[in-house]
What we know:
Elements: H1 26-33, H2 38-50, H3 56-65, H4 70-90, H5 101-106, H6 110-119, E1 125-129, H7 135-143, E2 146-151, H8 154-166, E3 173-177, E4 192-195, E5 200-201, E6 204-205, H9 216-225, E7 229-233, E8 247-253, E9 256-263, E10 272-277, E11 281-284, E12 300-304, H10 306-310, H11 314-320, E13 324-325, E14 333-335, E15 344-354, H12 357-366, E16 371-377, H13 383-390, E17 398-406, E18 409-418
Parallel strand pairs: 1-2, 1-4, 2-3, 4-7, 8-10, 16-17
Antiparallel strand pairs: 5-6, 7-9, 8-9, 10-11, 12-14, 12-15, 13-14, 15-18, 17-18
Amino acid sequence: MCLGWLPQGGPLPNGGGGRQAGGVTPEDVALLRSAAAADALRAATEAYADDAEPDLFGLTERLRAEGHDPVLVALALTQGRLRRRAAVRLGPRGGRLLWTQETLEQATRPEVAAHRATRLAGFARVADLCCGAGADALALADAGPQVLAVDRDPTVAALAAANAAAEGHSGRITVRTADVTTLRLAGLGCEAAYVDPARRAGAHRRQQPETWSPPWSWIADLAREVPATVAKVAPGIPHSLIPPDAEGEWVSVRGELKEAAIWHGPLATARRRATLLPAGTVLTDADLPPSVAVGAVEGWLVEPDDAIIRAGLVGAVAQRLAGHLLDRHIAYVTTETEPDARFGAVFEVLEEIPFALKRMRAVLRARGVGDVVVKKRGVGVAPEELRRRLALGGDGPIATLVLTRTEGGPLALLVARYDPPRSGDPAALGTPR
Length: 433
């Protein structure tokens, strides 16, 4: 992203010289890339991989005794900690790269980066603007294009170059330190562009797209210069901001919404798209029926994936499942036949309960329920307050209680989570949120 580096964390252990954990300079990155750093980086990475709380004092003393510079030791220990977090969040590649706290927090999930790179794979040269530590640039290079990776922060650009080299992509990724708003990509041979604008100011989110860095108006200008432009945006972006010739895509990974993007010009294949990874299930506005029926509760309830809800494609799920909505403004689909679990979380409806505290308590106690997980849509109920007032015994099983608005009024549904066998990745979708 296009925010410059922000210091993070506190003093490094044993001789960090007052340096901050995030206070990395381009010279530090060069030091970490040097031959002298290899052993220290390896030792720190292995120490954090093997032990959640490694013996930092002992490791520091050992590395210094081996002749490593104290600054290098401090940098290596920080990288060991960041690499452990990166490996958990981003997989094995993340555990091999160099990071700052900020670039790690901003890095795209590998499934999403690979999906985007696949859509851009047909272009010879793609610009990755606001490239961060290079996670997206690496995915693009994996897919085939030459990549121009640009970030205005010299340290972040140095990280991207180091990571490109570490992954064997120095020949495919060119890194440049520059303000992306000053570039003319068409003159640099870029046929397509990906831009990830900064949407935070410190700890606060910038809600208005024109306050992003670079702003929304600049992204629109970029799409006129390079028609094949894709911009990462906040998942809550209003559909009205999607340009007429563009596509809004919402992407989830294992049922969790990860990001949204606007695909301009020749990249657009629909107006709205929901992509569910890793299975690759796709719904678009072309899948929406002319109208969606609304009716009573059937034997099954489906809570569509968040990407589907954000894309406004719940009606397409109802169409695919031969089902209907409980209320035209509520994102629940009900059907009488066992539903396809690719589209979200599936629940078997065990009992309908009138929306009254005494009736809910009576039914739950009669079934020996000890506690409930409350899911609600369209009703003004505080789940924790409801659980307190139900005053269940606490010794029986935990049940799921769905509180929802229907066209006939509010209703409580006692449901059971259903996870049928699925083809492909067994954990692809429908995991608990």
